[in-house]
Amino acid sequence: MDTAYHGDPRKYDRTRGLPPAVQEAIVVALADALPAGARVLDLGAGSGRFALPLAAQGFRVVAADLSAAMLAHLRAKQPAGAIFPAPVQADACRLPFRGAAFPAAFSVHTLHLVADLNAAVAEIARVVQPGGVFALGYIDHDPAAPIGWTLHAWREALARRGYDLSRPMWRDYTEVAALLARRFGAPHTRVAARWPGQISPAAALQSVSERLFTPYWGLPDDKHAAVVAELRRAARRAFGDDLHAPRPDPRRFVWHGYQSVPVQREMEKRA
Fold it and tell me: At 194, which CATH number?
């Protein structure tokens, strides 16, 4: 299954943008967890939202992504003479790097998309040095606010129809984090940023209708339209008839930091 981003990279940047202060806080929190100036793998770098500012701080970032178009967009951002990520087209399930190539790696909003999550986690364990750091980052939405409610309602609607929610795109980040914890041990969790946000339930539902974000990919047109109609009815019960009134939608960005298992510990675990 191809889950690479095939849309316009400029639209991706517009729809995934974060407030500047929030973006800065997320990058600062990540940089604090990494060895200074280290060679770092950004797994699922996309258009470089995190790779670019990290490289500007002196890290030697390798920006890996499945989408050639996204990497081309990243290359186009390179200013003359600037420290810049090395873009590499790569599948997270079959990384083209030698073992223990990186003292650190991170991934934001990518591992829910990979075709084989177990293979991707095994590849992370292979390319990160023993004792090195892997950071998983994602936005966590309030489940009672429009975006969080909509995502939860979408997944419930799919489950009622018998769809496998562990497949790519529909996979939840609690599942991703749990698998990483089984492989590497309990993470150190840091909330890097909180910000208020505001959106109407109608706008949140429109993002589903337009398949703007990856959790809403994957259904044939007729089945997708049926789920959207069901969500609109449920939203009126949850939020009232005026779905166009903006409502508070608080958000936070979470980093889970995992330490790669040293070779000796891995051997003891298998014995």
Answer: 3.40.50.150
Within-domain flag for 87: yes
Please identify which residue in the block is written with the tokens 């990384």.
95
Q: How many domains does the chain have?
A: 1
pLDDT digits (tens, 9 = 90+) for 153-206: 999 999 999 999 999 999 999 999 999 999 999 999 999 999 999 999 999 999
User: Do the Cβ atoms of 4 and 67 come closer than 8 Å?
Assistant: yes
- In the DSSP assignment, the letter for residue 85 is -
Cα–Cα distance for residue pair 259/133, rounded to 1 Å: 5
Q: How far is CA 245 from the centre of its chain?
A: 29
What residues contact residue 97 under an 8 Å CB cut-off, 6+ apart? 41, 62, 127
Coil vs helix vs strand at 147: helix
CB 258 within 8 A of CB 187: yes
Distances from the Cα of 161 to the Cα of 153, 168, 233, angstroms: 13, 17, 17
Neighbouring residues of 129: CB distance < 8 A, sequence distance ≥ 6: 100, 101, 102, 103, 260
Residue 47 confidence (pLDDT) above 60: yes
